[in-house]
C-alpha cells in the first residue's frame, strides 16, 4: 500500500511537469505582421505653365556690309573689315510644358551694346569706322526634352521670330563725319541645345548654347560726304546661356516619386 501511494504521487508530479510542455507543442506561435515595401512611381501628369528668366554672353560674326557712294566715281563699296565684340544680354519668357518630352515658350532677349570696329577703303586711303549695335530678339520656341537622369534633362530646340536691330552712328573717330545709324525689324531664327536640372519641385536650372541668325538690313543713312545708305549682311550669333524656370501650374517632372501601390501586409510567423 505504501508503494502504491508513492507511485501515485510520482505519477501526479510527472503529469504536472509534462502537461505544460506538451501543451506548448500545440499552442500557435504569435503572429508578427511585417509590411512589404510600397511601390513608387514618378507622377505621369506632367505639364503646366512656367515662366523663365535668362542671362547670357554672346558674340556675333559680322558678315560684311555694303554702302552706296555718289562719286566720283559712283557705285557700291563694301567694308574691307568688320568685327563685333562680345556682350551680355538678359531675357525672359512664358511657356507651357505639354508632357515629359515636349514644351514650348515665347521669349524676349535684349542684347546690350556690342562695340563695332570696321574699315572702308576707296582704293587709295583706308578709313576706320566705329559704332555700336544692340538688338531686341523675339522668338517662339519648341523643345524636345530627351529624358531625365539623376534630375538632369538634356534637350534640343528651335525658334523662329524677329529682331529689332539698332545701330548707333557709324563714324570715323579721326574726323567729324558720321552716318546716322538706323533701327529696323528683321527675320531671325535660332537653334539651341542644353540641359536642365531640378532644384526643387517648382524651380529648374537651365544652361545651354544657342545659335541665332539675324537677317541683314539697313545699317546707316546718307551723310554729307556723299556716301550711304549702308546695309549689313546680318549676323550669326553664338550665345552661352543660363537661367531659371519656375513652374507655377501643374507638374514640371521634378516632383518626388509617389506611392501608387501598397500591398496588404502578409503574416510572418516566428518560432
TrEMBL record:
The keyword Plastid does not apply. Gene3D superfamilies: 2.40.160.20. Keywords: Signal. The keyword Signal applies. Residues 44-248 form the Outer membrane protein beta-barrel domain. InterPro entries: Beta-barrel_OMP, OMP/PagP_B-barrel. It comes from the Bacteria. Residues 1-23 form the signal peptide. This is Porin family protein.
